[in-house]
Amino acid sequence: MSSPRVIPSIDQVLQRDALVRAQARHGHAAVAQAARQAADELRGSITAASSADAAPATAEAAGAWIEQRALTLLATRAEASLRPAINATGVIVHTNLGRAPLAGAALDAMAAVARGYANLEFDIDAGVRGHRHVHAERLLCALTGAEAALVVNNNAAAVMLVLAAVADGREAIVSRGELVEIGGGFRVPDVMRQSGAILREVGTTNRTRAADYAAAICDRTALLLRVHPSNFRVEGFTERPGLSDIAKVATPHAIPVFEDLGSGWLGIDDVETPAALADEPSVRTSLARGADLVAFSGDKLLGGPQTGIVLGKRDLVDRARRHPLMRAVRADKLTYAALEATLMLWATPSRRREIPVYRMLTMSVDEIADRARALAAAITSATITATIVDGHSTIGGGSAPQSALPTRLVAVTSAVVSAAHVAAALRRADPPIIARVEHDRVLIDLRTVAPEDDGVVRRAVRKLQQ
C-alpha cells in the first residue's frame, strides 16, 4: 500500500524536465501552484482507503504523476472559459448558449471598428464631439415608424431606464397578470422598484380590464405599463385588454403608455410572420396601436447583439437619454457596429436570410430533412445507428411560449454506450456539440446548426466509433 511519504518535495518536482520547460512558458509561480495542487490531490488520493492501493508506490512514480497532473492543470488554465459551441438542440434563441448568433456582416462590422478608432462620439462633418445615440437610430426608426430610438446594453436596463426617467417617485400601473419572472430569477417587480417607480397593481392574475387601469389613475400616476408575458401563457378564464384599449384610457389624462415587448419581433410590412410567432406582438403594431414607448431585446428575434432598444415618442426617449443612469447602461462601439449591420440586413429584403435567427425561423422542413438524411447516412456504422424522426424545434429565449416548428431530427443510438454517454462525448468535442437526450436517444436538430458546421457534427459522431 502506498503512503503519502512517497510524495517528493515541490522543489524536487519543479526540477523535472517537463516542468522546467513549463516554467519558461507560464512562469515559476504558476507552475509551482499547479504542482502544489497536484501534490495535494495525490495526497488525498493516497489517504483515501478506497484508492490507496492504486496510488504511486515510489517517489519517482509520484513525481511523474504530479508532473503530468500539473501540466494538465496548466493547460486547462490557459484555455479561455468562454468557447464557441454548436447548438444542436433545436432551441433557436438559446439563452444558455448565448442567444442569437450574429450574421457575418455583423461580425465584419465589429472587426472593422475594433481594429482601431471609430467615430463613436465624433461628428465627422462638423469636426466636433458628437453623440453615440445617433448610431442605429435612423435605421430603427425607418424600420418601425418610431420618432426616436435609444440603445442600451440589455432589455432589463431599457425598462429600468425608462421607469427611472419617467416614473421615479411616482406610480406605474401594471396588471397583476404581467408581473413575470424571467430567466435567472429576475422579477419585473424587483426591476421596477430599483428604478424608483412605485408599483401599482391592478386586476387579478387571470383577468384585468381596461376599467381597472382607469380606476387606478390619480395625480400620482406617471405611466401605464404593459408587460408581454413572453415566457408563459395563461389559458382558460382569462381577460386582458388590448393595447389600443389601454391607450384610450391613458390619452385623456396625457399619461404615456409603455410596453415591454421582451423578444422584439419587428413586424416589418414586407416580412411574413412565421406561424410560430403568430401570437407574438410586433414593435410596429405596438407603436401603431398607441404605445408611446416600447422596449425590447436586440439579441432575440431581431438576431443582433445583446442590447435593449427603446423606441417611441421623441420627448420621452430624450428624457431617458438624458437620465444619469444612461451612463451606466449605454452600449459600446462593438455593439453599435453589430446592431447597425443587422438592421441593414433587415432593411434589405434580399439579404434577410443572412440573419441566422431569421433563417432558422423560416427554414423549411424539406431543407432540414435533406441535411439530416446526409448526416445520418454519414455517421451510421456497426456501432452507431442514426435514423430520421419527426420532431419540433422551439424559439426559446422567452419568445412565443409553447412554440413548435416542425423539423426532422437525427436520432443517434450506440450499441456500446448509453445515450447519456454519447451526449457527454459530444459535449467534450472541440467545439462542444450540445444536443438533446430523449428516450435513450441523442437527438440532433440541424435547424440550429449552421450548414457549414454539419461536417463538424459528422466528424464528432464518427470519433465515437474509435
Runs in which pLDDT lies below 50 for 5 or more consecutive residues are none
Number of strands: 15
Percentage of β-strand residues: 15-25%
* Main sheet overview: 7 strands, mixed
With helices defined by DSSP (H or I, 4 residues minimum), what is the helix count? Answer: 18
Strand order of the largest sheet: 4-10-9-8-7-5-6
Helix content: 25-40%
The residue-averaged pLDDT reads 91
Taken from the alpha-carbon principal axes, the silhouette is globular
Structural class: alpha/beta
Q: How many angstroms separate the termini?
A: 35 Å
Q: Gyration radius, to the nearest Å?
A: 28 Å
Could you provide a short overview of the structure?
This protein is of the alpha/beta class and 466 residues long. It has helices spanning 10-13, 17-26, 28-47, 59-78, 104-114, 137-144, 155-167, 188-195, 210-216, 243-250, 283-288, 314-322, 326-329, 333-346, 356-362, 365-379, 419-427, 454-463, and strands at residues 86-87, 122-123, 128-129, 148-152, 171-175, 198-202, 221-227, 257-262, 293-297, 308-312, 384-393, 405-414, 433-434, 436-438, 441-445.
